[in-house]
Design goal:
alpha/beta; 4-stranded antiparallel β-sheet; binds iron/sulfur cluster
Length: 337
């Protein structure tokens, strides 16, 4: 209790023709104001679904959600659609990977940035336009007074991303959820957008959840990291802890696909073979066991295929290996061969 965003024992299930998809299981985490939590995992790990559940953007007819989500003391899991609508774009906002899913081609950039501001503050059209210009300036669009009347197709990809950030921040949200917001951009623009987000966070004091499949992207961005696999959190800690001394074999694999971060270390780690687990028929025991090269190495009769490892509160990993093994196997992985 007491944390700004609190998620407790969240389960998200979808009904499909083939059965029940267990998309998110037993998930708990917190995010404080002014802090950034990076949620890392492959597609299908549950990271995007978790955030759609927070925003109340899941399909209520095919989705079952249990557990507790509270934002600033307000319970969201049982909230009405009307309540959720008053919070979305206002108290919490989202930045998507593809600005064209958020921006309509038919309206000017200025109108689209001003729209949530009008809706949630009751501002006039003229005030909303002024606010849109102010926001375009904040996100670094040159000549905002003229660009405000442009349509999305008149903006470059990087500028559209900035416009979407302006739209997300126009009501000064307390919680900002960014789902792979820079994946489609080239590395230089990506770095600029990340810097921009950090600056805006300083100014607005928002809590940020940053979702990505790429640990490198959030290395300089997140205060804390939660790694998800197969609909479960498998490791968490501060960014420094997770990057310097990762404890879960899956995280070791993720680090290997991170060329930007310390080339020395990552080049020697092996990428993970195999495919993500089925969420219709998840593996027994540890969800990672079908891909884990350490699964037979756990001492003391503990079974990776039979016993589900639990994620401790605070720093730790959901893995049966002993602390000593976690250290030595990781070091072995990064030793020159
Ligand atoms: Fe690998 Fe076993 Fe640890 Fe799972 S619990 S990550 S299978 S060693
Ligand atoms: Mg996704």
């Amino acid at each position: 209790a007491g944390s700004f965003l609190s998620v407790r024992d969240l389960h998200v299930r979808f009904s499909t023709e083939d059965g029940i998809v267990k998309a998110v299981n037993n998930l708990s985490f917190d995010v404080e104001r002014g802090k950034t939590l990076g949620i890392v995992g492959e597609s299908g790990s549950g990271k995007s679904v978790t955030n759609l559940a927070i925003l109340g953007l899941h399909n209520p007819r095919s989705t079952e959600i249990t557990g507790e989500i509270t934002l600033d003391g307000q319970e969201l899991t049982g909230a009405s659609e009307k309540t959720m609508e008053s919070l979305r774009g206002n108290k919490m906002a989202m930045i998507f990977q593809d600005p064209l899913t958020a921006l309509s081609p038919y309206y000017t950039i200025g109108r689209q940035i001003g729209e949530p501001f009008r809706k949630h503050t009751g501002a006039s059209k003229r005030e909303a336009r002024e606010r849109a210009i102010e926001m375009l300036e904040k996100v670094g669009i040159p000549h905002p007074k003229t660009r405000v009347d442009d349509y999305p197709h008149q903006f470059s990809g990087g500028m559209r991303q900035r416009a979407m950030i302006a739209m997300a921040l126009v009501c000064d949200p307390d919680l900002l959820i960014a789902d792979e917001p820079t994946t489609a951009l080239d590395v230089t623009v990506q770095a600029q957008i990340l810097d921009l987000l950090k600056d805006l966070q300083q100014e607005f004091g928002s809590a940020i959840i940053f979702i990505t499949h790429d640990l490198g992207v959030i290395a300089n961005m997140a205060d804390d990291i939660m790694v998800m696999y197969g609909g479960r959190a498998v490791e968490r800690g501060t960014t420094g802890e997770v990057l310097r001394a990762p404890q879960h074999p899956y995280t070791w694999g993720l680090l290997s696909s991170m060329p930007r971060l310390g080339g020395d270390v990552s080049q020697k780690l092996r990428p993970i073979e195999g495919t993500p687990p089925s969420l219709l028929n998840p593996p027994s025991g540890c969800p990672f066991h079908p891909r884990c090269e350490f699964k037979d190495k756990v001492p003391g009769g503990v079974s990776c295929t039979g016993d589900r490892p639990l994620l401790p509160e605070g720093r730790g990993a959901a893995c049966h290996l002993t602390p000593e093994q976690k250290r030595t196997y990781f070091i072995e992985q990064i030793k020159p061969r």
